[in-house]
# Entry
Amino acid sequence: MPIIQVSKLNKLYRTRIKEEGLKASFRALVKPVYKEVQAVKDISFTVEKGEILAFIGPNGAGKSTTIKMLTGILHPTSGEITVLGLDPIKKRQKLSYHIGTVFGQKSQLWFHLPPTDSFALLGAIYDIDKSTLKKRVDELTECFELGDFLKTPVRKLSLGQRIRCEIAASLIHTPDILFLDEPTIGLDVVIKQRIRELIIDMNRKEGTTIFLTSHDTGDVEKVCKRAIVIDQGQIILDHPVKKLKYDYLNKKIISVRFDLEQHLKAPSGVTIEKTGTMGARLSVDTRVCSIDEAMRWLIAKGGVADLTVQDPPLEEIISTIFTSQPEVV
Amino acid sequence: MKIKKYLTVVRISFQNAFVYRSNALGGLVFYALFIFVFFNLWRAIYQSGEAAGYSLNQIIWYLCMTELIVFGCKTGIFSEMNEDVKSGSIAYQLNRPYHYVFYQFSNALGTMFFNLIIYGVLAVVLGLIMVGPLPDYKLSMLPFGLFSGMLGILINFFLMMTLGFTAFKLEDNLAFFLIYQKLVFMLGMFIPVEFLPKWLQNVAVWLPFSYIAWAPAKLIVDFSWELFWRVVPVQVCWAFIAIILAIFMYSYGVRSLQAHGG
# Structure
């Protein structure tokens, strides 16, 4: 049986709107006008136990709103949610013993106290007895390598250290599901990589189901087996990451700069997106032309001064997804 | 409801209070300065005789006590909740196995304990230096005065929390807080209720504000059973109402919560 079941979920926000000008301000004071915004539109999906699922989409797509409804913080306008067999709204407290949440941009640790104190507090909140708590904290300390700064006030930790503590803190009560909302936001490449490894480890060791939202294609590629793409409150895609990669992450961007003037004539599979006299930006369809071939072709031209190969940004992939709907079945 | 988790919250927030050393020190200086200024003001007023049944000695101790309640209860609960609701970090605190209202209360208790201890010591020291001990003071009655003080603190805390919860619905609710502060200040904290015009006294009896600082301070300084039975039952009622209001505002707010900040 799926661990999370969502069917025909909707969330409407009502916001006040005001037209320009003083007269409108007065009018709004007497008779406010509301506008309804549909943040989540009729979405349905299921998550199996032990899955690592990515929930991706641009800003304002409804990712956080969905997470907040799944964890019982927001009331849905309509639709049904079952998490671990419970209705999150009606059984929020009961459910909270079995789920953990990390909101990358907010902190659950006490700012001026060392993480140990926050762990002790969370242990008490989740009714964990002393010896179990100690064992669990030791385990997490080892796994997340927190030993060096467990006794340092949180305000003195680096962002990477803090996020590790945040994730550890949300795992104190050994939850069945971990919700991660932008866990790697603002982190450097090395730390990002480390956090991803830790998440995968946790999933393997304890079978924790992971529900992750992110902007970062890296998070999705490296961590998740399945991805749901959401935009304007609607699910656009629900696919294994492998398929997503094959369909959409098959584009690479090559930026090249030459020492001498070059006139490029692209082979098949390569599109010139921008060109100057001394350089160009090319996009390569790796299904038609491998990176190897593309590089050979460029080097053969001679006079390459600088060359970078990049993944297209997620925003671009998402826009590809929108414009190439027919490719998807 | 398991009480143990709330006690742990109290302990941790008490620990946390020690961190703000310079803050506490600044508060102490401010408290002393405040008392000193009003000490001089009252001394000047009392040049022309006694007022409304308070001796100068009593009025200074009264002032020390009302200020103790106000400074001791400085928890920032209003701004904290306002911030939590507006920034959306309340999301973190909602899906935990506790009642948010009582969690916040336990959280504040730790800070209040700390404040009451440090300001309490200072209040007694300042009172002794400025006017000396109260003549014929019945120390055995002090616990009853302190009990009333606790009720005052409860009323104050939960009313502020109720105001903080208005952030769920209103973009700018600071005005409520300022008005509330001024009402507490005017109806008892700054001057005893007996000093107010008769009609205002009659109004104040029906409002919660004077039961926060005036009632306990008066009981601590000049205890009488007559006063005790007149104010304490009313305090109990107001405390009860304030708690119910806070819980009601919370559940109302949560239902209509529009999560801010993505």
User: Anything to note?
Assistant: Chain B has one domain: 3-255. DSSP finds eleven helices and no strands in chain B.
